[in-house]
Amino acid sequence: MHIVIVGGGEVGSALARALAPDHEVFVIDHDATVADRFTALDVDFIQGSGTSEDVLARADVKNADFFLACTGLDEVNIVACAIANQVSSPETICLVSRADFLGSASDAGLAQFGINRVLWPEAQLAVDIEQVVTAPGAIDAEVLAGGVVRLLEYKLEASSPLVAAPVGSLHLPKGSLIVAVKRAGKLFVPRGATQLVAGDKIILMGTPEAMAEVETLVRPGANRGRQRVTIIGGGDVGLQVATRLEKAGNVDVRIVERGEERGALLAARLTRTLVLNGDGTDLEFLESEDVGQSDVLVCVIDNDERNLLASLLGRQLGVPKIVTRVSRPGNLRLFERVGIDVALSARGAAVASILHQISGGTSSLLAVLEHGEARVLELTVSPDFVPRQLKGIGTPEDVIVAAILRGDHAIVPRGDDRIDPGDRILVFCTRAAAARVLAYFGGTGA
After folding, report:
1. CA atoms of 351 and 174, how far apart (whole Å)
2. pTM for the whole structure
3. I need a labelling partner for 393 at 20 to 30 A (CA). Which of 113, 166, 335, 433 fits?
4. Which of 97-106, 144-153, 252-261 has the lowest mean pLDDT?
5. How many helices (H) and strands (E) does the chain have?
6. Top-confidence residue, 327 or 234
7. What is the 3-state secondary structure of 171-219?
8. 146: CB partners within 8 A, 6+ apart
């Protein structure tokens, strides 16, 4: 396919690296120094503005299948998509950073510019943080398929009851399933004989009722009462996280913002959040405000170095759970290696979502986990699929059917449950297995 990317920053360069081996890719950016990022890639770099018809013509936008606008300026992204739509009719994806461009009224307005999909990565980041904060003991949490399926990820301690027997012998609540294990940096789908060990990360999926029981089973000592949450950074993400946690009802929220003017705005916008004016990377300030007594510390400064420092100070003060924003996806593993419980990248998730839209066919990408190593797909089984029981379908390696969606209900399948043509299913798989999943359930299942 012919793909035009406007913006050669973190998102644009990540997209180009992933797409270049299989597609014809043009990257447009006004900054000539950005070109160095693409010298080793099979990519055509064009210096210029993505809002210039002449520049777009040089990128042969008339023949583009996808047009991706991902600069740091919302207005540039919107105008670029509008011009591309006037010249041709590619599938347009536009990244934005403000709520002004979301919501039903704005979506209708942007649709008039020919924009097929609008992504606000920071908004999704706030949702992800809220879900992790409100799941005691979990290091990742997702709500899927309109709320009928939940996903939780835990790191097992030596005292966990799940390390006592092979997976096939564990008495998990009905309607729940262990879909993945990460051990020594390797992610795999467990089998019945797999023995879990302390230090494993495990990912479970199931119905909301079953997963509530799972939380009690996996982390019996986790605090399920009222939580005290401190947010470092009062930017757009911090404001959104605080707003969402206020609605949760069982959370006492404090937000630390060093800018006095921004702090006044936060105080005016938030009704049940205590706004503290101070530096979240100042140890004396954090000690004076008893930040170490927090159940969760959320660091969402728009700077990786300051976020890391604030997170490490929180760990030193004894905060049991730390959730940290990572602006540069390449830093995710570094943050985890130094002991950060949950490191989340809005841009990394946006890149995975865009890539899936380009190559994922009719399936939907519901979640990206473990820094892109795994994903949850929703797809409809092909009419040509030969119906059979789950225990006899022989799915590809590192693939597991986590749920069958029928009507408003989710069935977490066992071996005797049957997959039929036309079924909607949720499939957990590794990144490498995603293409095999689409081919398998999109055909006869041979």
Report:
1. 35
2. 0.83
3. 166
4. 97-106
5. 13, 24
6. 234
7. CCCCCEEEEEEEECCEEECCCCCCECCCCCEEEEEECHHHHHHHHHHHC
8. none
